[in-house]
Amino acid sequence: FVKLNNIYKTYKMGDVSIKALKNVEMEIEAGSFVSIVGPSGSGKSTVLNLIGCLDQPTSGSILIENQQVQDLNKKQRADFRGQNLGFVFQNFNLIPVLSVYENVEYPLLMIKNEDSKNHRERILSLLDAVGVIDQKDKRPHQISGGQMQRVAVARALVTQPKIVIADEPTANLDHDTAFKIIDLMKRMKDQEKTTFVFSTHDPKIIGEAEIIYTLEDGTIQNREDRRDN
Amino acid sequence: FVKLNNIYKTYKMGDVSIKALKNVEMEIEAGSFVSIVGPSGSGKSTVLNLIGCLDQPTSGSILIENQQVQDLNKKQRADFRGQNLGFVFQNFNLIPVLSVYENVEYPLLMIKNEDSKNHRERILSLLDAVGVIDQKDKRPHQISGGQMQRVAVARALVTQPKIVIADEPTANLDHDTAFKIIDLMKRMKDQEKTTFVFSTHDPKIIGEAEIIYTLEDGTIQNREDRRDN
Ligand SMILES: Nc1ncnc2c1ncn2[C@@H]1O[C@H](COP(=O)(O)OP(=O)(O)OP(=O)(O)O)[C@@H](O)[C@H]1O
Ligand SMILES: Nc1ncnc2c1ncn2[C@@H]1O[C@H](COP(=O)(O)OP(=O)(O)OP(=O)(O)O)[C@@H](O)[C@H]1O
Ligand SMILES: [Mg+2]
Ligand SMILES: [Mg+2]
Question: Is the pLDDT of residue B114 over 70?
């Protein structure tokens, strides 16, 4: 469950103030499939970084799974992320010195209370599901852009987080591969009740969402609930 | 004018050989608008890197503007690129310590024989054409993913190169912004006779191409010439 209340995000550059988000309100039920759409520069990554606890709002509150997260300190936010969230970055952010397999394994090593018996099986099964199992021993610079993107998706899912935040997760993928990823996410939603919040520019991916928030110039223009159709 | 003859690109990883490109043949006329399509991992970036002289084939020849480029050494390739080519990278590759303006200016500083009187005007006009002029004094980490992509496009065009190679140049852009970029490229093609070779997953961008090469698993499956329609 995610609730954004009266969210403002302002960047100060010298005397200039850039209002990236203004009075953003969002309510996301557990287990839903939510898409955030809007032009380049409208604030989608900024919203996702706030939900993902990678950034703090200038003002306003963010409730995630009954935890107010806007006032957590850096260490508390890192712990909260490790326990609850998975994040697919717009620029993937893979670790260059680790192999594809090790990149996906990494979040599992960060959670202390998980027993590691089933880890290998889970990692291999995710790599296979996103279609990069043949690349598992390569390093990020030895694979294609779309392969990197899929490794980033697998990494976000490996800890079976409550909420997955994905910033344009299919931007570098062809139609068929993109749908493979979307189907994987929907399977996790159905089986694990994972909540998915993702931004995308792709109309066919937007078409898969239950709820669509439209952003423009930092404000929410529209919220569409398609579940009644 | 670009001609790829019997191109092979093989990556050696221990005892394993990965044939990323097999017997690729391509012929691109000056001033044409060529799209390379195919699934993630099929070899598009590899082909573009070869045309862009950022990489060398394992075997085969590459003729660009009457210059055989496959046997040029590193320095010769860098000079050839600076004089003739513009490249939009799949991951943008902006220089973090330079502002948006300075990133676009950079290739102009690398060409020694250009007089710099009109540079500022050209840079500002390109920044405006791709829609990022308000971001010109920011650094790459202070702008959105799609804004970075557009800065990368502006940078590839600023030296008015003979050939522009663009690796998924609209992946991070919404529909309207993507078409702004495509229209800018078509204007340059018409006015400057620039050749454009780009990869994309986006059907509506593919629809703008005159010639479409389809790649699959490292080999060319099809070449479609749509100019007779
Ligand atoms: N340095 C390398 N070493 C080993 N394999 C590589 C290397 N670089 C690329 N490859 C492999 O070559 C194949 C083609 O890669 P390429 O980046 O050209 O694909 P692409 O068509 O651009 O894919 P995408 O649409 O995902 O960007 C991929 O399977 C990739 O893993
Ligand atoms: N650190 C920063 N300092 C100043 N401005 C910033 C900073 N980060 C982002 N911005 C600005 O905030 C606005 C929103 O950025 P954001 O990355 O959220 O857009 P977006 O909707 O994700 O765009 P895209 O579709 O291009 O990825 C942009 O205009 C951007 O330039
Ligand atoms: Mg973004
Ligand atoms: Mg590629």
Answer: no
